[in-house]
Every structure is written in structure tokens, then in C-alpha cells.
Design goal:
Layout (H helix, E strand, L loop, with lengths): L2 E3 L1 H8 L8 H15 L3 E2 L2 H8 L5 H11 L9 H14 L8 H13 L2 E3 L4 H8 L10
Parallel strand pairs: 1-2, 1-3
């Protein structure tokens, strides 16, 4: 199964220093490395944008862009945005706060049969309401 990787995981791997990570975070980075080797890690444009946002050094920005160029964005189309809006409309009445980009990830994962790999606990709340598969790192 392919895995749609959230900004939180890419950020651990590419924006943080490994010696600053705790054991759980290091395990997440190791899992991402395995997913990349297996050709199963997927990214979408909004995740790339979030990952690149807030970098003040032009050199660091260019380096991260170069690193990320190995990972093409998955195509996002009108049906994905409609599915994301539907997912949002299911979550909100149940008291689950949502973000536009998170709902897009959920919609794409659900319609494509992919899992989402994240460290953001919001996705655990979404999974209680939506049939979104979450990727659990292998031990």
C-alpha cells in the first residue's frame, strides 16, 4: 500500500537535526526512509508548500527544494477537492475540527486506498469519524 506522508513526518526527516529527535521521532524518520526505499512514500503539493514555508535562509530553502525534487507531487484534481469538502462536512457536525489541507490528505488517502503517515494527532481524530487508514510504523 502506498503511503501519503504528512508534513509533520517530512519535517522531522528534512528540517530537524537527528540528534534533536527523541526515540519516537527517530523511528518515524527510519520508517520514512524505508517507505522511500520501497517507492511507497507519496507527497502532494500542499504538503510540499507547508514543508518549504517558513525557511528564512535562501540557501537552506534551495537545498530542501533540491532534496524534495526527487519526490513528484501526486496529481490533485477536482474530485479530490470535492471529496475533501465532503470529508470536512462529515467531521464538523461530529465536533471534529478540521483543516483544509488535512481533509485533502484524508480524501486522497481514502479514494486511492492509501494510508497516511503522520505524527499530528489530529489525524487520529479524523480516523474516528472517517474511514481513513493511518500508517503505523513497523517496529
Amino acid at each position: 500500500m502506498n503511503v501519503l506522508v504528512d508534513t509533520s513526518i517530512w519535517s522531522l526527516a528534512l528540517r530537524r537535526r537527528s540528534h534533536d529527535l527523541n526515540a519516537h521521532q527517530n523511528a518515524a524518520v527510519a520508517e520514512l526512509t524505508e517507505l522511500i526505499k520501497e517507492g511507497r512514500a507519496k507527497i502532494i503539493g500542499p504538503v510540499r508548500q507547508e514543508l518549504l514555508s517558513g525557511i528564512t535562509s535562501a540557501t537552506q530553502f534551495d537545498k530542501l527544494c533540491e532534496t524534495m525534487s526527487s519526490f513528484p507531487d501526486e496529481t490533485v484534481g477536482t474530485p479530490d477537492y470535492v471529496a475533501a469538502a465532503k470529508a470536512s462536512n462529515v467531521c464538523r457536525p461530529k465536533g471534529t475540527a478540521v483543516s483544509v489541507s488535512d481533509m485533502l490528505l484524508c480524501a486522497m488517502a481514502m479514494t486511492r486506498g492509501w494510508a497516511i503517515f503522520m505524527s499530528n494527532p489530529d489525524f487520529e481524530n479524523y480516523a474516528k469519524v472517517l474511514a481513513v487508514p493511518l500508517h503505523v510504523p513497523r517496529k
